[in-house]
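Structure ticket #2291
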Amino acid sequence: MLPTMIKAMLIDDEPDNLQFISSMISIFCPAVSVVGAYSDPFEGMEAILKQKPDVLLLDIEMPGMTGFELLGAYRLLILS
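Resolution: structure written out below.
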């Protein structure tokens, strides 16, 4: 039986951070597949709703919406 890949999504307003985290995941976490990396939290929210990742790696301070605000908005959307 093949192992199930864990789907991870990255949201950070710093492109260098997205590249670094994605590289580290590919090197050290072979069971994790990065299904998306977004520098805009609003685009990231749309992608979360479409792709339904297993894990979110969020920046805390981003222009327009913090990582905590993004989680709160996601929670409201899935509970409504």
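Closing remark: The mean pLDDT is 94.
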